[in-house]
Amino acid sequence: MSQVLRAASFLSALLFASTASANCECGYTVNGTLYTDLTESDFLHMKQVNQSGWIPQKYTVPPDVARGPYGKNALPEQIVFNPLKSRYDWAGDGINGGDAGAQLFVRGGDPEDGLVPIAEMTTNRTDLLYGSFRTGLKLTGTPGTCGAFFWYLDDAREIDMEFLSSQFNATSHPVNLVLQSEASIAAGFDAGETEGFSVHQLPFDPSGGFHEYRFDWFQDRVDFYADGVLLKTLSGAGVPTNPGHLMLSHWSNGDPMWSGGPPEKDAVMTVNYVKGYFNSSDTKRQEDWRNRCEDISAPNATCEVPEITEAPQGNASANTFFFSQQQNMTVNQTVQGDNPNTVESDAWSIRSSTQAFSTILLLLSCVLFMEWWS
User: Fold this and answer.
1) What is the mean pLDDT of the chain?
2) What confidence tier does 370 reach under pLDDT thresholds 50, 70, 90?
3) What is the rounded distance in angstroms from the CA atom of residue 222 to the CA atom of residue 231?
4) pLDDT of 121 strictly over 50
5) Backbone angles phi and psi of 4, in degrees to 5
6) Theoretical Cys-Cys bridge with 300: which of 23, 198, 258, 328, CB 3.0 to 4.6 Å?
């Protein structure tokens, strides 16, 4: 019986270690700022939308409401998931040909019903309150669309990185950095008349390859980046202070002062990935963080988010870091995808509980075996 007790004590110690040794249990840091939650989507290896944590949008907006000569018709079928042929690759053509990733289409031509078919999707999480958000994008080179990566609550609280394909030419490749606010609504939905607007020329063609676009949202400002380089800081009354969600959109309404178009032919914006490290406004998530973060100063209790230093468009550089593709770095987090290290669920991750339960079963099996053997 002493052998049984020794075996039970040994495996109990293993059980404690398995449940207490998780990395990043207190969160993720970006330039010294701690965020409690994450969401990561690897579209290069994702086969269908229900793995992604994103919701395709379906709606119609008539021309007068769309503020252009054409209306918009958002359809789920305008979003095509085109993963790489091999899960071990990080660059190349997708299974349908062309650029791999989530493809957001704007259909070309003059629509008979006056509604341009467009693509838009939003995260299923709406509790994003301050954080660092980034995406790998390749914009269309077909004139007449607006491609956007943004955080959104309503038309008066919005953080945008918008790309107007009609503005791209041999010498000009701008990104429009926008804080939509009450002031922009008062100006006729024209943020250009407010302090929350800036146009920044990029040193590359956004339609020529994939690049990472990012914004870090604080209480008093928003910092915008491209390929890890700070572009601009916007501040003032337009900085949002309420929780919201992320969105990806590719659209046209024919407005000659903005999107232009509609495009003469089908135009596509392709998404490699989206990553967000943020604080949650959800009280349950906040309670979960307090329960799992026992000692914020403990080794590996917080994890620094790696920063990219080059455009994510080669088989090496596009292999960007995902916490959700590592072992034991996303305990009690929401993760998506078909990677074997992730939980394919939109519920909170139960990886730590599963590991603990498996260890308990192992403990009981060994104790029973030792008892029978003795």
Assistant:
1) 87
2) low
3) 11
4) yes
5) -65, -45
6) 23
CA-nearest of 275, 239, 235, 263 to 54 is 275
> Cα separation of 235 and 159, whole Å?
11
Helix (H) or strand (E) holding 216: strand 211-217
CA atoms within 13 Å, Cβ hemisphere of 88: 0
Cβ(219)–Cβ(188) under 8 Å?
A: no
Which residues make beta-bridge pairs with 21? none
Write down the pLDDT at residue 12: 44
Q: Both ends of the chain: CA-CA distance in Å?
A: 7
Q: How far apart are CA 77 and CA 92, in angstroms?
A: 23
- Closest Cα to residue 66, out of 126, 120, 125? 120
* Type of residue numbered 3: Q
Q: Is the dihedral of CA 19, 24, 26, 27 positive or negative?
A: negative
DSSP state of 23: S
Residue 54 phi, psi (nearest 5) = -115, 155
- The answer to whether the bond into 262 is cis (omega within 30° of 0) is yes
Distance CA 349, CA 4 (A): 34
Please report where in the chains the tokens 């041999």 appear, as a residue: 170
Q: Kind of pairing, strands 101-106 and 79-82?
A: antiparallel
The pLDDT of residue 307:
94
Cβ-proximal residues to 166 (8 Å cutoff; 6+ apart), any chain: 143, 144, 259, 260, 261
370: enclosing H helix or E strand: helix 351-373
How far apart are the C-alpha atoms of 150 and 246, rounded to whole Å? 6
How far is Cα 126 from Cα 134, in angstroms, rounded to an integer?
A: 17
Rounded CA-CA distance 99/191 in Å is 33
> Phi and psi of 2, rounded to 5°?
-65, -35
Instruction: State how far the Cα of 223 lies from the Cα of 230, in Å rounded to an integer.
Output: 7
pTM for the full model?
Answer: 0.86
The DSSP secondary structure of 187-202, one letter per residue, reads TTS-GGGSSSEEEEE-
Query: At residue 14, does pLDDT exceed 70?
Result: no
Reported as a pLDDT band with limits 50, 70 and 90, residue 374 is: low
**Residue whose pair of structure tokens reads 């407005």 in the numeric block:** 255
What's the CA gap between 294 and 296, in Å, rounded?
A: 7
